[in-house]
User: What shape does this take?
Amino acid sequence: MTFETGNTARARILIVEDHPLVRRGLSSLIESETNFVVCGVVVSCEAALKILFKTPPPNLVIVDLKLGEENGQELISKIKARHPKIPVLVLSSHDELIYAQGCLKAGAQGYVSKRCLDTTLLTAINCVLDGKMWLSEQLKALLAEKCLRGQTIECSLPSDVLSCRELQVFESIGYGHTTRQIADKTKLSIKTIESHRESIKRKLGIKFSAKLAQRATQWIESGKIR
Assistant: This one.
């Protein structure tokens, strides 16, 4: 694997992460490898998309799922829509058995736990840059089990059946935010948020708003959001 950047063959890696300590740790780990170089470290989706238009673009983007009020899974979808050939690797503290499947559907090539900021991450980076998928043995086993049962990747978990934006709205409902508060936070209209609420209810088989709020609260309290 070689990537020409000036006089040195190194893969250019963009980090999208909003936690300072994690950013520093990631940068140090990645640049400890002679064949990698960090070409940018940003904290928002907007900043990440701007860097993707620069020349030369990154060879790999590492994305956190939670970027403040922004949704990393939505960023993955935007990256793949505009730059389908640039691989994306998710690095997150969230349970991979719950969130990895949604990230893969959005276009990510792999999912690594933040507990693996060691050789596991470097191995995953090399794997993805070689055009392969990176999945933990635990996640591979889950997907294999679903395949044997004749199931698709989708399941009844909200994180798998809802779109990136719908999941963001659903989680906000779970935190007790009103429609107006959600609209202000996402910079969308109240009408758009109401439309998302109806779509969420339809996908989750919920008829009433009170039941939706209850389901969203249970989702938060059950520890799915960390």
Summary: The chain has two domains: 4-144, 158-224. Strands lie at 4-5, 8-9, 11-16, 36-42, 60-63, 66-67, 70-71, 88-92, 110-113.
